[in-house]
Structures are given as structure tokens and as C-alpha cells.
Amino acid sequence: MADLVRALAFLAIASTGFSQEKKSPLVGPLEPLWPKGAPLAQGEAAIDRPSLSVYLAAGEKAVGTGIIVCPGGGYAYLSTGNEGHEVATYLNAQGISAFVLLYRVAPKYHHPCPMLDVQRAVRTVRARAAEWKIDPARIGVMGFSAGGHLSATAMTHFDDGKADAEDPIEKASCRPDFGVLVYPYIVLDKPYTHQGAKKNLLGDRLTDADLVEDLSPEKRVTPKTPPCFIVQTSEDTVTPADHSIEFYLAMRKAKVPAELHIYEKGRHGFGLAPKDPILSTWPDRLLAWLALRGLLKKE
Known about the structure:
alpha/beta, eight-stranded mixed beta sheet
């Protein structure tokens, strides 16, 4: 039965149009974020239906923390292998429930669709926290590359929910309780900005200065921004360490707890870096940080 569920899940994702690595297909059951259709959807195909691939931690291991994982891909595709499935499996082993977000990307979708998707993902996990045995006050976002930008966007664009909403999910807050950014794309207006990702995100609004300002997470950090763990390498030339440093300094200025690790070696897209004896220690640093914040303690 388990093999059948995995096979059906893989077939469902393979038909979405979201690019992924065949060696590491997502196997978690798919939960559409908007069962009746996503806002601004341009069709009814699977690619028009953002969803979560759910990986719940085993009962005896579960610590009550949930993390929404946002794969990278420059807002053009989703690296659901080393930045999705592998990460979710690792988090499960630590007792953390994971939810890989299949958000809408270019060329069909631009802002605000990815932001709406991640906000809805946070609301969904919080609204269904009891069902999934998660503490509604221990829900984080974890993003890689462009997924890091999306996670940082969720950390800096949030609300408390709409109390009078007919949809019970919309009543839940979309503020993450913490964030994890891995070689994140952050800055939109500097020479080291990734122009391809910027175009994919903004579409034909590249010259909209107000929008660029609004979607530059380092400029929107406030004391209400949740705590954050950041990891990066000096060798990364796709999203240079400047992105992580800028966000860390903004967090420091706002007096929000943050931890930044910059490794010397390691190219962009390393994921968990399982084959690198040095870089592969970063998940241990993350676990130490999560423990420090009480996020690995069973309730």
C-alpha cells in the first residue's frame, strides 16, 4: 500500500510541470493550498494549483515542530530533489514534520503569486496543526536560493489572519515563527543581484522601484520579523554571501535574533552537501540553533 501511495504521489507531481530531479521525487501526499482554485490562477492544470508535499515526522520521534521547505530554482523551476525531498527526509529523521512547497513560478507566474503561495502555506499548516500534531507556535520556513528569497519574503510580509473570513484557513496568521535561509537570494538592487531570478519574479515590472523596494527583504526587517538561521559559502558566485550578510545586518539592526554561518568552500546549490566532509556539518549547526530556541524539545 505504501508503495502505491508513493507511486501515485510521484505521478501527480510529475504532471504538474514543476521541474524536479528524477532521482529524488517527492513522495509526500499532496495537499492543494486552495482546493477550489488559487487566486490569480491562469488555468486549471496541475501547474496552476500550488500545493504542499507533506512529510509528517513519525509519532515516536515527532517533536511538534513543522517547517515549510521552499526549493530554489531562480523562480523558473523547483529543485525538489536536493532542496526538497532530501531536506524533508532529513528533517523527519530529527522529528520535524516537513512540508515541501510547490509554488508557482515563471514564465507563467510572477509576483505576487509565489508570495501568496508561501503565505497560504503557513496559514494552512497552522490551521491544521492539531491534525498534523504540530505546535501552531513552532512553524518555520526554510528556503534555498530563490526559495530563500521567498522564505525571507514570508518573514517580512505577514498578517494576523482575517477573523471574519469564511475560509477557516484565512483566519490563521501567516507569520512564520522562525526562518532558515540557505544560500538565499535576497537583494534586488545591487550589482550582485541575480538578474534572471529578478526578471522571473517581477515579470514586466522590473523597473517598478516601489515594488523592488517592497520585495527586498533586507529593507523590510522589523522587530516583528521572526528569528533566523542563515548559511552561505564564500565561493558562491550565483548568490554571493553579500545577500546573507545584508539580511543578517538588517536583523541585527532590528535586534532580532539571527545566526549566520559562512563556509569558505562550496558552490551554489549544495543542499545538505552530503559528499562534503566540511560543508555537510551545517545541518548540525542548524540543529544546535533549533535546540537553542526550544524547537527540538518534545512537548
